[in-house]
Write a structure and sequence with these properties.
By secondary structure, the chain is an all-alpha fold. The termini are far apart.
Length: 206
């Protein structure tokens, strides 16, 4: 992270936005670049006044979605031909492909939401979503909802607590699963609330 920050701080603001967008697009293509470090760096630079926090959030959000959509589109356009290639099998082994397909059978398209919080499987799941012909509107909806949790959480956390950036990095590396659990608990709470409301409406005499 120190190296990335050193490179970014030497650039003018417009180039910082472009560089962050490029890095996050590469993250979406499965390259071994930690997405959370890039997002935290964006927030930290905003904390230091190098860039606008709201602008850098929008840039990061668009780049994250763009990278995810590229992975999805590759799977949708090239399908099994891509998965059967030597390059794909080197990084996306058949055993991993079977595991990802099992996730789709168990959770359906909701696994796209979950994938945003699983760095080791994110690219594989998004690529598989394309090969399995998930509707683009469904993919974008689930991915956008997940990104609206993860991206602002890291960017704004680093912005507000930039003076404790080491603690922010440490927390982020431990918390991706924690964020997912919190989101799922909130979703369950809303589902139960709606279910109780429907039951009450069902017993009200007309």
């Amino acid at each position: 992270m120190d190296w990335l920050l050193a490179q970014l701080t030497s650039l003018p603001p417009s180039a910082v936005y472009d560089t962050l967008a490029g890095v996050l697009l590469l993250c979406g293509l499965g390259l071994p670049i930690p997405e959370d470090v890039s997002l935290i760096s964006a927030g930290y630079l905003a904390h230091r006044g190098v860039v606008s926090v709201h602008t850098v959030f929008l840039v990061c959000f668009a780049a994250v979605l763009g990278g995810d959509c590229i992975a999805f589109t590759l799977g949708r356009l090239f399908g099994s031909r891509l998965l059967d290639s030597r390059l794909a099998q080197r990084f996306f082994r058949p055993r991993k492909q079977i595991r990802v397909r099992a996730y789709f059978r168990k959770f359906g398209s909701k696994v796209i939401f979950i994938a945003r919080f699983l760095p080791g499987l994110r690219f594989s799941i998004f690529l598989s979503a394309g090969t399995l012909r998930v509707r683009p509107s469904v993919f974008i909806t689930y991915d956008s909802l997940a990104a609206l949790v993860s991206v602002p959480a890291l960017v704004y956390l680093a912005f507000f607590f930039g003076e404790h950036i080491d603690h922010v990095v440490s927390w982020a590396r431990r918390s991706e699963y924690g964020i997912l659990v919190v989101v799922l608990l909130i979703a369950i709470w809303f589902a139960l609330k709606m279910l109780r409301k429907r039951r009450r409406e069902a017993v009200v005499p007309r």
